[in-house]
Hints:
Structural class: alpha+beta
Largest sheet: 4 strands, antiparallel
Low-confidence stretches: none
Number of strands: 4
CATH topology of the domain at 46-107: Beta-lactamase Inhibitory Protein, Chain:B, domain 1
Distance between the termini: 71 Å
Strand order of the largest sheet: 1-2-3-4
Helix content: 25-40%
Oligomer: single chain
Amino acid sequence: MSRPRVAALSQLFAGAAFALMLAPATQAEQTVVPLMSQSPQDQSIPRPKWGETQAKVLKQFGEPKSKKGPVGKAPYSYTQWHYDKFTVFFEGDRVIHTVLSHQPQSAK
């Protein structure tokens, strides 16, 4: 290939790369739930506390609707148990976090 042709192709590829950088990002639909948007009465929903065992959670709240995990590789893997009003995150056998599920106004 001749030098002028290689230079022209190089400029073409550089221009195409620059144009791609300037192109707008692909748009996706996004659902936003504002932080602290749960009502105060939702905070009183009984849920597992940090450090409780899976056995205690099962005894107190019963079987979850679904389970996911473990996700990740030990020792940094976690498991999720999904209940109607909250999700429990376990590391190993212990609760590390609980998150309230979003409840639409009509479902409360």
